[in-house]
Amino acid sequence: MHKLATFYFLRHGETEYNIKHIIQGQVDSPLTAEGVEDIKKLAIKFRDIKFDLAFSSDLLRAKRTAEIIALEHKLAVETTKLLRERSFGKYEEQHNSVLQAYYKLFEHLSDEEKFTFSKDDVESDEKLMARVITFLRETAIAYPGKTILVASHGTVLRVLLVHLGHATRKTLPSRSIDNLAWAKIESDGVDFFVKETEGVRFTKE
User: Fold this and answer.
1) Over the stretch 131-166, which tens digit does the pLDDT of each residue have?
2) CB distance 23 to 96 below 8 Å
3) What is the DSSP letter of 105?
4) Which of 60, 113, 200, 203 has the most CB atoms at less than 10 Å from its CB?
5) Residue 203 and residue 146: Cα distance in Å, rounded?
6) Distance (Å, rounded) from C-alpha 129 to C-alpha 106?
7) 88: which residues sit within 8 A by CB, 6+ positions away?
8) Quick check: is 108 catalytic?
9) CB 31, CB 19: distance < 8 Å
């Protein structure tokens, strides 16, 4: 068996758009002062973890989050588009409420249909997972036995946990991933094992 890479896969800190309930998707919104303070607290909590590498989505809110934590470990952060938030197409920079009709449509689909569903240029779960799993597999194979910080986004972490069988869409609905929520995931590049989560609010079936 290959040595497992260990990922601490987290959502970025609080942003201005988060508190205004505006859909960010792949547009940028700055971290709030409180968001920065919370990241610094998490950095202290993570101080004893020996991170070997740090990766982040190329969106500034995730990059900044990774940089604050990586500073404690004297690591440079490598950014990649593969870790970006889902593209929300025409809904980006609008209030969350505009997605209600989209979600209503989504609700009536089978799980298989939900995985491939895309409308109004919103990126499907299938496309989202294709790029995120590619990143995780390639990184796990390239860095066996290493501990890796990964800063990404709420939808990415939620869909990933469902995709890996750690949750279902019902137990992990929209907006159940807090800012700075994280999952500890081990992988040899083939299999994935979710070992621990924090700030991920599961609901009962």
Assistant:
1) 999 999 999 999 999 999 999 999 999 999 999 999
2) yes
3) H
4) 200
5) 32
6) 18
7) 23, 24, 25, 26, 99, 122, 123
8) no
9) no
What is the identity of the amino acid at 43?
Answer: A
CATH number of 5-200: 3.40.50.1240
**Residue 85: active-site member:** yes
Query: What is the Cβ-side half-sphere exposure of residue 183, based on CA atoms within 13 angstroms?
Result: 24
The strand pair at 53-57 and 147-152 is best described as parallel
pTM of the model: 0.95
Residue reference for tokens 């700030």:
199
> Residue 101 in contact with residue 119, Cβ under 8 Å?
no
Please report, for the chain, the start and end positions of each structural domain, with discontinuous segments joined by +.
5-200
Residue type, 135: F
Alpha carbon distance 70, 63 (integer Å)? 10
AA identity, residue 194: V
Active-site residue, from 12, 14, 123, 153: 12
- Catalytic entry in 67, 85, 123, 166: 85
Q: Give 107-132 pLDDT, tens digit per residue.
A: 889 888 999 999 889 999 999 999 99
